[in-house]
Amino acid sequence: MKLKHIVISNGRNYLYQRRYPKALQGHPQIKQPIYRKSMGVSVGSPDEEILAAHKFAHSTYENFVSVLALVNLDQLSQAEKIKKAQSLIDAAGLKAGMLADDPQLGPQQQQALREDAWNHIEYTDIFPGLGNPDLRPKQGEPLSPKQEIEDIAFKLLAEPAGARGRSSIPMLSDCWAPYAEAKSIDLKTVSGQQRLSEWNQFLGLAGDTVITNDTVQDALELYVEKLFKTGVKGTTVETRLGKVLAIIRHGIKLRRLPIVIVKPEIKGGSDYADDYCLSAQEEQALMSLLGTMKPCWKTAALALMLETGCYASELQRLDEFNVHLNDPIPHIILKNKTMKTKSRPRVLTPISPTTLRLLKSQLFTRDWIKFQSKNGSVVSQILKSVIQKIAPLATARSLRHGTRLRLMASGIPFDLQALIGGWSAGLNTVQMGYGRAGVTDQRTLTTLQATLKTANGSMEAQGPRNNVVKIGGAKYEALH
User: Are residues 421 and 432 in contact, defined by beta-carbon separation less than 8 angstroms?
Assistant: First the structure.
């Protein structure tokens, strides 16, 4: 890997090194002709870390030089000024928040730390007005663009630092890193790279900006408008917008910002109300087909999705410790931090012999683990190709609609439907909030199993029916 402007110090540490433009050689803030700063990475670091550090170091240098050269500063947006202010203090070796109070320090320690910070700031000479009142703007006079950037830079030093010592003035671009960390997005995988690429496309089309109610809303509207101009279909726009919104909303929640986002209306977006729903005969035929196919992740995933209405993405994030197929009542718990549907935690109690056989033979095999790392769109297409052997108009989502239809047709109470399918985030989140014991209690599992046996009983022969539980006017056949 070859990158420009990189040198190695002491045979180990990477430095970003550039010669300042000749026109700036006499500038008072330039102490020597060579700009040289540590990149914070060393020989042997992962390539993605080196690339990210190089990108940041290059941006810092370019912004710093443009501030000194006064290049088109009067045309800069507020977001760009904040970036240049951050680069100004980065290039000077200062840190955001270094003048802010630290609640963990006593008064004397705080005073000593602040005096040391002031000495460092004065030595850098990046704020000429601090030591020369003649350079400060007169009262009532507007700040020049350069003075505006210096003013923002000073505020960055004086306010409490944000995450990892960066400015606490939030930008859209600041949303990605905490989201990727929270969701354990691995950039070494195809799906991780695609997710980052889609986010970068959003920033490229909408532009990076300060996070406020108006700027975020404008950015989203502009993103949707430009995506449509590239010829992307409405359903694809809706899917990509949903991913972008998830990242932004996570950043807003993390910083506790008082911002409410209204999702832009999308013409031609997904309308799942008209999705195809398999007939009872087609469901029986599909289960029969899955039972005769060679066992693999596809057959196991589809059998469980057909029975319980779960999402393929939930199975891709399923943890082994949440699978209890050898218990007296076999069950799977859909709840962990990486679930895309974490607002719909629930318990699945598959009853079909075919489903149980396929799950026991396929879960967490090498084939299954490969499935868990596949791109979601690819998985959807693979599953659809199997489903359409029985129902040419159906998709994976059709299986979820079918589950809801069977539960409703069987007279299952709404709270039980929610705990199985997650159609009401409030109900099942409250139920799961009582702890694992609350939903894995034998009585709860018996009821859930009886519910699916009642709704799915005609999908495949189940053997003798030796117990009936009556709840809310409906009969639930339970297994013992």
Answer: no
Residue 1 domain flag = no
pLDDT in tens, 150-172: 888 887 777 766 544 444 567 88
- 289 with 265, same domain: the answer is no
Query: What is the domain count for the chain?
Result: 3
Strands (E), 269-368: 323-324, 331-334, 346-348
Six-digit token pair at 53?
A: 């550090």
Q: Which two structure tokens, joined as six digits, stand for 18?
A: 């550039």
Same structural domain for residues 400 and 285?
yes
* Domain coverage including residue 222: 173-270
Answer whether residue 433 shows pLDDT above 60. no
Residue 166 pLDDT: 47
Nearest to 313 by CA among 250, 393, 241, 396: 396
- Do 294 and 438 belong to one domain? yes
* Under 8 Å between Cβ of 176 and 213: no
Q: What is the pTM of this model?
A: 0.53
Per-residue pLDDT reduced to its tens digit, 127-142: 776 655 555 556 666 7
Q: Quote the DSSP letter at residue 295.
A: P
Distances (CA, A) of 311 to 151, 304, 307, 315: 51, 9, 11, 7
- Clarify whether residues 419 and 320 are in a common domain: yes
CATH at 447: 1.10.443
Gap between the Cα atoms of 372 and 203, Å rounded: 28
Question: Which stretches of 276-363 are assigned E, i.e. beta strand?
Answer: 323-324, 331-334, 346-348
386 CB-near residues (< 8 Å, 6+ apart): 289, 290, 293, 298, 299, 302
Give CB contacts under 8 A, 24+ apart, made by 449-452.
449/329, 449/331, 449/349, 449/351, 449/478, 449/479, 450/476, 450/477, 450/478, 450/479, 451/407, 451/412, 451/416, 451/420, 451/476, 452/307, 452/308, 452/349, 452/350, 452/351, 452/420
E strands in 243-354: 323-324, 331-334, 346-348
What CA–CA distance (Å, rounded) separates 348 from 131? 70
